[in-house]
Amino acid sequence: MSNVEPHGRNRRNAKIGRRLFALATVAVALNGCGPAARSGATGTAAAPAAPSTAAPPVATVPAKPPTAAPPAAERPLPDSPAPDRVPVPPAAEPTVPPVTERPPSPAATGLPGAPAKDRIVADFTGKAPGTWGLFVPGTATKLTGGGRRIALTFDCCGGPGGNGVDQELIDMLQRTRTRATFFLNFRWIQANPGAAKSLAENPLFEVGNHGTKHIPLSVSGRSAYGIQGTASPSEVYEEIMVNQAALHRLTGKPVRYFRPGTAYLDEASAAIVRQLGMVPVSFSVNGDGGATYPAPAVVGEVAAAKAGDIIIAHANHPGCGTAAGVAQALTALKADGLKPGRLNLK
User: Does an H or E element contain 190, and which?
Assistant: First the structure.
């Protein structure tokens, strides 16, 4: 047999293989699956195997690719490990990472007029925690004094994923001359010293204490949303007063209001907040669902507020629906004769 026939068959096989690979690539792209079609995928598509010298089987290619993507188990994954190697999972990120800057020593957290840490520990060690949740005795959930006032409050939570600045929201509040309260977390202040200073110096706004590590306030180690809270009066003091000292440096005066991370606390912790000279603040209207609501949902929640309501939303997630939703809701609130103002709580 001459050498011409095998070489001719190889060329025909290669041509058929290239056509089949091109059709398969089009189908993958139209289906939106595979590494090449994924946004941000790091893997690269494997090159097609070289065709064998044997004649390939006849393949039937549908006129239209299927509209449904293949099951997840069948989709190629980028950078898949070799079959003989067991991948080592990355270490789980802690729910509440430590602050990036060493906080002041316990002695440095004392402020004029506030009880010392040892006094708080002595007064509350062994006391029953009492009610636990968002709305506990001793916590402000509504405004006092009557009138047609409401309170817009925005949490700046800090930490990974929470250090953003919603400048669109802040600019809108300034443009509309809308009063609001911003609860600043210690980590957020560290990440955004300029924005924190600007909020503290703006006469439209007041700032509140949103804790040091952004964790629930508990004397017995209770958790909320999977976040471990403080576990003793000593830890409650630190969660409040480390950030209170930072806010005192920022504003030049003691901050009056405290809202714990997640807004969860127990009665004993609420009593500690008050003994330290602050008012623990919860809310009566959840304005943006932890910065997860789209703008229409934010409009619906905020615009439904009644006189005396304290609205909670967030100012640390730019790009979410909060800014646009609150802006639209302000028109409805004004039409109802409701005016956002300071907390003025006792």
Answer: helix 186-191
Burial (CB count within 10 angstroms: exposed 0-12, middle 13-18, buried 19+), residue 225? exposed
- Residue 226 Ramachandran class (φ > 0 left, ψ -120 to 50 alpha, else beta): left
Identify the DSSP state of 75.
S
In whole angstroms, what is the distance from residue 315 CA to residue 291 CA? 8
Nearest Cα residue to 290 out of 98, 140, 143, 134: 134
DSSP code of residue 109: G
Give the highest mean pLDDT range of 46-50, 170-174, 251-255. Answer: 170-174
Place of tokens 């809308």: 178
The confidence score (pLDDT) of residue 224 equals 97
Report d(CA 111, CA 103) in Å as an integer: 15
pLDDT at 114: 87
Question: In Å, what is the CA distance from 255 to each residue of 66, 242, 295, 307?
Answer: 61, 12, 31, 25
Count of H-run helices and E-run strands, the chain: 9, 12
pTM of the predicted model as reported, rounded to 2 decimal places: 0.70
Q: What is the pLDDT of residues 38-57, one digit of tens each?
A: 233 333 333 333 433 344 34
Average pLDDT in the chain: 78
The greatest distance separating any two alpha carbons of the chain, rounded to the nearest whole angstrom, comes to 105
Closest to 269 measured CA to CA, from 168, 163, 130, 145: 130
